[in-house]
Structure formats: C-alpha cells, structure tokens
Amino acid sequence: MSDQVEWRVRDHLRPHRRRLAAVLVLTIVSSALMLAQPMLLSRLVGTLTDAGAAVLPPAALLVAAALGGALLGAWRTYLLQSTGEEFILGLRKALYRRLLRLRAAEYDERSSGDLLSRLGTDTTVLRSALTSGMFSLVSAGLTIAGAVVLMAYISPVLFGAAMASLLIGAAVVFSMGGAVRRASTQAQTNVGLMTVAMERALSAVRTIRACEGTEREVAELDSAATRARDSGVRIAALQAMASPAIATSAQIGLMLVLVLGGYRVAAGHLELGDLAAFMMYMFMLITPVVQAASGYTQVQAGLAALDRVREILKLPEEAADEPGTGGGPIAPATPAAPLIEFASVTLTYPNGVTALRDVDLAIAAGSRVAIVGLSGSGKSTVLSLIERFYTADSGTVRFRGHDVAELPRSSIRSQIAYVEQDAPLIAGTIARNLRLGRPDAAAERMAAALRGAGLDEFAESGGEVGGRSVGDGGALLSGGQRQRLTWARALLMERPLLVLDEPTASVDARTEGLLQDALDNVPSGTTTIVVAHRLATVMGADRIIVMDQGRVVDSGTHEELLDRNDLYRELASRQMLAADAVRG
C-alpha cells in the first residue's frame, strides 16, 4: 500500500476528528451505562431480599442508566452516520477529481463502467463498513471488554466456563476474514463488469436493436449479473456461518453457566444477585459478540472496496501545470518558427503498438493543412501529441518553436479548438455544449457560431439561444447536427489553431459542404489542421500531408500528390470510383 494513498485516506478523516472523538466518548459512556445495569440489578435484587432496604434508589438508578444509555446511543449513531456521509463525500470528490485528471492512456486501457463502479458501488460498501462495521467492532469491543472484566470479578469460575465456549466461536469467525475479503473483492469486480456490459449495451442500443441483438446482449448481462449474484451468495454464506458459530458457542456457554451457577448458588459459594448479574452480563455479551462478528465481515468487505478505490487514487494524473503558469498566448521562439513542428518523433502506445516512427513535419502559422492516410497510419496520434494527451517516446514536438514538454498544458490547449472524431456531446442543452470551451459566451456569439456551422435552425429558433436539449450524448439530434454542433463549439472558442479529427466521417455531402463553408469563413490568421479520410474535405488545403504506417511519406497540394504519390492517387481513385458508383 502506498504511503501517499494512506495519507490521502487519513486526510479525509482528519477534518472529522472532533466528531469521531465525540462518537468515541459517547460510545464509552453509553457502554459504561449499559455495563452498569447488571450491577444495579444485582443491588435491586439484594434490596428485595432485605426487608429493611429501600427499593426506589437502585430502581431509579437502573431506569436512569437504561434511558441515558439509549439516548446517548441515538446521538452517537446520528453523529457516526453523518460523519460517515461526510467522509464518503470527501472520498468521492477525490475519486472523481482523479478520474477526470487521469492520463489519456488510462481512459484508453480501462472501461468507463469499471471506473464508475469505483465511484458508486465501492464507496457505498466502504461507507457501510465505516458507519456500521467499524462502529460495531468498536462498540462491541468496549462492551465485551467491560463485560469480561466484570464477569471475571463476579465469578472467575463461571467466567472461565463461558469464555472457553465463546473463544471457540470467535476463532471460527476470524479464521474466515481472509475468505470474506477475497469474496468481497470478487463481488465488487463482478458488479463493475456488469456495469461495463450495461454501459456498452446502452451506448449502442439502436445498433443492437437494428441487428436484432437485444436477446444476445440480455444473455450477456444475465451472465454478468449471475456472476455478481454468485459472488454475493458466497459472501452471504460466509457471513451466515459467522453468526451461527458465535450464537452456538454463546448458547453452550450460557447452558454451562446456568448449570454451574445454579450449583454454586445452592452450595452457598455464590449469591443469587451475583448470579443474576453474571447472567445479565452473559446475555449482554452475546449480542456484542454477534455484532462484532458481523462488523468484522463488513470491515473485510470495506477493505476490499478500499483496495479498489486505492487502485484509482494511485493511478498517475496528467502532470499539473505549475501554479501561476499557463493560459496565456505563447510567443514564437524565433520569428521564422513554424506553429507546429515534429522532429524525429516516435510514439508507442502502452499496448505495444508503435503509432509514429521518426515523424518530421512543420505547419506554418495561418495555413490550412490536411493529414490523410489509411486507417491506423498515425493521423489522429499527431493531434494527440499536439494536444499533449500523450508524450513522445523520442524526438521533439514544438509549438511556436518551444518544446511542448516544457510548456504548461493549459497554455497549449488555450490556443487550440479541438473537434473530436466521434463528435461527443454532453447531456443537457445546446448552450451547455457550446459553453464547454467558453463558459462566458453571450447569446449573440453563440448564435453566430451556430450559423457559422450551418445550424441556423438552432440560432433562430425563437426563445433562448441554445435552449434546446440534445439528449444523452446528443441522441435527440441527427448525426449531422451533432457533428456541426461540435464545429460551432470550436468556432465559438476563437482559438488561433483549429484542429478537426475526421470531421466529415459520418456526414452527408450537404453537411460536408457546410463544413467547407465554415472553414472558408474562419478568421484570418487561424491555422487549421484537418485529419480526414474523405479527400473532398481537404482538396483545397494549402498542404496535404500523407501518412502511412506511422510515417510521413509525402506532402504537397492535391494536384502535386496526384501526380507523384501512388498512395494518394489510390485513395483519390477509390473515392472517385465510389462517387461514380453512387451517381450511377
């Protein structure tokens, strides 16, 4: 376990130390009042056998102890539960802040469903372990300790008989701790896998229905849910074994005490009031022992959940900028420095795939550049390096002549308007999506950006600009509208570098034409980089860079590349043939 992560967990508990101290004090006092009741009962029984003794004082003390213990217990429970909620709130904040700041490679390698299960399911299990399991252990431990001392004081002989039986049951319970923790880890993992399967199905629900694959997905979810159920049943079986083991040992101990205690009272070695007090302590001991067994299994489940939470908290974040740096314009290192420059850049992804091999390229400020090539040739990886989602294994990426590794990420990203390939939208309104990159954008600017992207129907819909809901992931918009809305968001940002990754991959010819119009109308001096499969999108670019198998193999204008580059000519030929087929 990482010391850094341990410190983080203690960090979340530290703000609540006073309330936790209050809970501990209330637990001690309420346990003391509970432990006092058998002794007060013994005194009450003694007064009943003594004709001259006053009954009211010990009876009043017994009632006061019972009521005081109940009231303090209720207050303690409230403080503990509310403190547990505050602790889990802090832990969840730490989790989702870490989840949103992980390195890009983590999102590529991990499923979002599993990451979400750490935030939901695991923190819920951890809260239960803290507020119920840990409390049960502490409260039961204090009660057991007090009862044991007083029982030994009243009658060492009866105490020895009772403990011999109870210790056997306790040994059985604690021997199962490792199994419970392992089963809990597996159960939480299986719940995470079920969440992954459900997320996958929901994200492609229309495709699944169109392919008549609903029943197959249901079958896969049934399998995942069954595995989660089986893991839960294994935990339930272990927990079910714990309580009977303790209860049975307690019953055996109770019978031994009854037989032996009755004999000692009859023989005159023990007072009846002392036997009554001992029996009450014995009954009082049974419930905390069972509570401790249950609390122990809950704590084991909580530790398994904490392990999964720690796994996320230990993942490296994207390196943060130094305080007070970033966000402003980047001055050119030299007057002749290109806006973007790659010098012998190589990048291998964590899965071992080499995406770029000794790439050299330069993009002048204010130019319109396209990057084309077959799938997997490294086009989108170039954009990821410009955005600093990844860092090159070797070589240098420069922005205005500066090594990007030495620039704050926020400074670089504040210069770039980025349109992703899948046109991701967040649930909410059009305005919320537009303001993602410019939170202070006025309605007039949003309307202008929407018109610039060919979304006049949203800019002139009457009422509030951008007030229409896009649905989950843009489900209430057409594919073309989703794509154009991401263009509008980029236009609204008004950054000096506009980067578009496959902006026309899933749109019709009319939408593609609207993109051309939008690109023609970007402010003068804006540098545009377009990654595209469809050459019609980039034919008018100042320069087209051709990539193949992670290398730059050529660059030039459309006409130049048609004359001299076989790969580009093949790409153009295939697309023209496809167009001819459509026209035919």
Automatic annotation (TrEMBL):
Q: Keywords of this protein's UniProt record, alphabetized?
A: ATP-binding, Cell inner membrane, Cell membrane, Hydrolase, Membrane, Nucleotide-binding, Transmembrane, Transmembrane helix, Transport
Q: Which SMART domains match?
A: AAA
Which EC main class describes this enzyme? hydrolase
Which Gene3D superfamilies does the record match to this protein?
A: ABC transporter type 1, transmembrane domain, P-loop containing nucleotide triphosphate hydrolases
The record's comment on protein family reads: Belongs to the ABC transporter superfamily. Siderophore-Fe(3+) uptake transporter (SIUT) (TC 3.A.1.21) family.
Point out the coiled-coil segments of this chain. none
Q: Which residues form the ABC transmembrane type-1 domain?
A: 21-301
Q: Where in the cell is it found?
A: Cell inner membrane
InterPro entries in the cross-refs: AAA+_ATPase (IPR003593), ABC1_TM_dom (IPR011527), ABC1_TM_sf (IPR036640), ABC_transporter-like_ATP-bd (IPR003439), ABC_transporter-like_CS (IPR017871), P-loop_NTPase (IPR027417), Type_1_exporter (IPR039421)
Topology relative to the membrane: Multi-pass membrane protein
Enzyme Commission (EC) number:
3.6.3.-
Q: What is this protein called?
A: Multidrug export ATP-binding/permease protein
Q: Which Pfam families match?
A: ABC_membrane (PF00664), ABC_tran (PF00005)
Question: What parts of the sequence cross the membrane?
Answer: 20-41, 53-75, 134-154, 160-180, 236-263, 275-293
